[in-house]
Every structure is written in C-alpha cells, then in structure tokens.
Design brief:
Layout: H1 6-15, H2 20-27, H3 31-38, H4 46-60, H5 66-69, H6 83-93, E1 97-102, E2 105-111, H7 112-121, E3 141-143, H8 149-156, E4 161-166, E5 169-175, H9 176-183
Parallel strand pairs: 3-4
Antiparallel strand pairs: 1-2, 4-5
Length: 184
C-alpha cells in the first residue's frame, strides 16, 4: 500500500481548491494538524491519514456510498409467503436470494441454498409449502444510504447481501455482484 507523502496531500488539496481549513473540517481534524502534516513536521497516525485521504476522495467524488450501489426499489417477500412462490419469483427475476421484509423492516434473507438445505433436511415434507419464515436466514447486515464501500465490503465478507435501511424502511439491497458491476 502506497501512502501519500505530505507533498501529495498538499497537491491533491490544492487541485480540489480546498483550503487547509476546508480539508480539516471534512476530515474532522484541526487546521494546524493539516499544516504540520503538509509541512512534514508531524507523522500522522494511520487512522488520521485515512480520514484525510477519505475526505479528499469524497471531495473528488471518488467515494462510493450505499446509495450509489444499491438496487432499488427492492424486490422482497413477506415472511408468510410460500417458499414455492418465492422460488418462482427468484427464478423469474434471475435472483439467487431475496430479502424477507415485513412493514418495511428486514426480517432476513432467503435464497436457493437455504431452500436446498431445508429440502435435504426435510425429505418427507414439501418445503415449497412452508412459509418463508421457516426457511429464511435471520442473520442480515444493514447499513444506511451514506455507508461507504469499505463498510459495505466488510459486511459482504461475512454476508451474502447488505440491506440499505433509511428511517426504519428498507430502501435497497447490495450484493457482491453489484460492487463488481460498479467497479468494472
């Protein structure tokens, strides 16, 4: 990882037309600290440098946020919908999973793998007749629309999807495919 030099930071700030005070406000640090870093008088902590670089990227419009990446409006199912109907919806839309939502609030995710797993466990019962609530995964990750791509990536390392929630309402969904499509 290449860290920017004090000269790099000063040059980027000037290219963006930002004063040291503007950058300090955006990065939530003091203006004298920006001056000392750019002057090479102080070696900032990595967390401080990251905040400054993020502030510069945001000023450039280079930081992707959940609202930029999410699929909206969201296609979802209710907890009492049948697994069979849900499977048909996923097949029809080409989805591998859909969120389970009641009254705008996320309740979980259901995907092809969940249905297959439950079918393997319930050899004598028709899983298609089950309500989604009995097959879904309850573990879900949620972020606000302003969450950065770094935050979203952290969640996607451990979850199949991230739901975007604003004011208690689910407004979007983000998967690995969405990030890949946006980057490429």
């Amino acid at each position: 990882m290449d860290l920017p030099t004090p000269a790099d930071l000063r040059e980027r700030r000037n290219e963006l037309g930002l004063t040291q005070s503007d950058l300090a406000d955006r990065a939530d640090v003091s203006q004298p600290l920006i001056a000392r870093i750019e002057g090479g008088d102080v070696d900032p902590r990595l967390s401080t440098l990251r905040r400054i670089v993020n502030a510069l990227q945001e000023a450039e419009g280079a930081i992707l946020r959940a609202e930029d990446l999410m699929n909206s409006p969201i296609v979802s199912v209710q907890p009492d919908d049948s697994v069979h109907e849900t499977q048909e919806l996923m097949d029809e839309r080409g989805f591998s999973q859909v969120p389970v939502i009641r009254d705008g609030t996320p309740r979980g995710l259901i995907g092809h793998s969940d249905i297959r797993q439950r079918s393997d466990e319930s050899e004598t019962e028709n899983v298609g007749d089950f309500p989604v609530d009995e097959v879904k995964r309850e573990s879900i990750a949620t972020v606000e629309p302003g969450a950065t791509i770094d935050e979203i990536n952290d969640y996607l390392n451990h979850n199949d999807a991230v739901l975007v929630v604003e004011g208690g309402e689910t407004v979007g969904i983000i998967t690995e495919a969405d990030i890949a499509a946006h980057i490429s």
